[in-house]
Write a structure and sequence with these properties.
By secondary structure, the protein is mostly helical. It contains two helices and two strands; from the N terminus they run H-H-E-E. A hairpin with a 2-residue loop joins strand 1 and strand 2.
């Protein structure tokens, strides 16, 4: 017993399978936060203090070099 699928039906079947494969990773954990609010606000404070100090290579937090985020700003 062999099943033959025409070209248009094969495209529709492929699109449905692709949609199912994409649906779960994209929409399964949609309610979870990837970025935390305090991370973004701390980086914003770093940027403001770097601008006010004039030192654009060392991130500052509360007037001192920030060692919490050790990645360089550029």
């Amino acid at each position: 017993m062999t099943f033959k699928i025409s070209g248009s039906n094969q495209f529709i079947l492929g699109a449905v399978l692709f949609g199912l494969l994409v649906y779960f990773p994209v929409f399964l954990h949609l309610e979870k936060l990837v970025f935390r609010i305090w991370d973004e606000s701390r980086v914003a404070v770093n940027a403001i203090e770097m601008y006010s100090n004039g030192n654009f290579l060392v991130p500052y937090y509360k007037g001192q070099p920030d060692l919490w985020n050790t990645k360089p700003p550029l």
